[in-house]
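PROTEIN DESIGN WORKSHEET
SECTION A - STRUCTURE
LENGTH: 338
TOKENS:
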């Protein structure tokens, strides 16, 4: 029963009320219907177990989905694109929360912030090109909020720069060490075993940011700073001699792929990540108390894969993007609750 309720949460709490008609929507509605039937059957066999509330919520959501799916007037292409863009907004904003919430401003990687801001700028640009007639108020509200999100990230970048400038040498050394460690962790995540499945754009961004941080670390280098700082400078210097070769290898591997090969690799990687999510949905809640760091890593893995998918918009035959976004947002909710 607990496993079924976890799955119910996946469908009800993780999906927006304004999901649009699509094959994915029909598939999700069928899955939710099956889960609700199983909950109802098992609840009847458990003395004193009241499943009325989750069943009521689930049935209401299922009815909303079925109404949308069966509507005789199909949603316009612009409406569908708006919904997908706003799902991407949720994904980008969770990236900010995942990496920056509760973290001192001086230890935040500005390059990640800039990448998120640029993505929101692009989403805003695309949204303004679409027709908004007949768009639900909840969608219009989120669309109108986009410029505020962008402005927030611009202000955040300025706050980080101002704080760093006001810091003394020792404080800067501490902050730069933390940023460098995070960049190294990011690079390790990016360099997954299959070079052709690495996000070249992310690698370029991480390499550039690390080179910039390395220069700043050398600029404040001083004998009175902790040995850990000196060790980090040496370590980063060695990594920066290796990373360009790894980037070149990844770039060449991606270029050498045919469309069919790229499609197969992306499908296989998607299946691996989605199977992992499926396994988590079947684990008892108490047994799945994964660390927030693991949920964050899974979110980043989905994030990276989606960035690769989006870098090949003309890739015919790949139909798992919606499922990947669903899974990323669900993993994000698990990160928030861990």
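SECTION B - SEQUENCE
RESIDUE ASSIGNMENT:
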């Amino acid at each position: 029963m607990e496993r079924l309720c976890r799955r119910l949460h996946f469908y009800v709490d993780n999906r927006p009320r304004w999901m649009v008609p699509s094959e994915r929507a029909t598939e999700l509605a069928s899955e939710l219907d099956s889960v609700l039937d199983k909950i109802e059957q098992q609840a009847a066999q458990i003395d004193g177990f009241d499943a009325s509330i989750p069943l009521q919520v689930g049935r209401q959501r299922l009815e909303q989905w079925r109404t949308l799916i069966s509507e005789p007037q199909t949603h316009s292409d612009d409406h569908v694109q708006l919904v997908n863009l706003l799902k991407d907004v949720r994904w980008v904003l969770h990236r900010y929360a995942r990496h920056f919430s509760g973290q001192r401003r001086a230890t935040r990687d500005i390059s990640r912030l800039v990448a998120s801001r640029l993505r929101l700028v692009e989403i805003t640009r695309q949204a303004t090109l679409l027709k908004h007639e007949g768009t639900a108020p909840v969608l219009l509200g989120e669309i109108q909020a986009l410029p505020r999100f962008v402005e927030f990230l611009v202000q955040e970048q300025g706050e980080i720069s101002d704080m760093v400038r006001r810091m003394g040498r020792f404080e800067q050394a501490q902050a730069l060490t933390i940023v460098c460690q995070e960049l190294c962790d990011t690079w390790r995540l990016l360099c997954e075993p299959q070079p052709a499945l690495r996000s070249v754009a992310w690698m370029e961004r991480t390499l550039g940011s690390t080179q910039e941080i390395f220069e700043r670390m050398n600029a404040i280098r001083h004998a009175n700073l902790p040995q850990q700082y000196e060790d980090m400078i040496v370590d980063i210097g060695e990594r920066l001699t290796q990373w360009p070769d790894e980037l070149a290898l990844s770039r060449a591997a991606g270029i050498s792929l045919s469309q069919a090969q790229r499609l197969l690799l992306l499908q296989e990687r998607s299946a691996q990540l989605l199977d992992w999510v499926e396994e988590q949905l079947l684990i008892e809640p108490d047994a799945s108390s994964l660390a927030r760091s693991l949920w964050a890593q899974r979110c980043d893995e989905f994030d990276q894969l989606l960035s690769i998918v989006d870098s090949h918009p003309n890739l015919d035959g790949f139909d798992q993007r919606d499922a990947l976004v669903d899974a990323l947002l669900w993993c994000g909710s698990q990160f928030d609750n861990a």
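SECTION C - NOTES
The CA atoms of residues 88 and 143 lie 12 Å apart.
Residues 169-256 form one domain.
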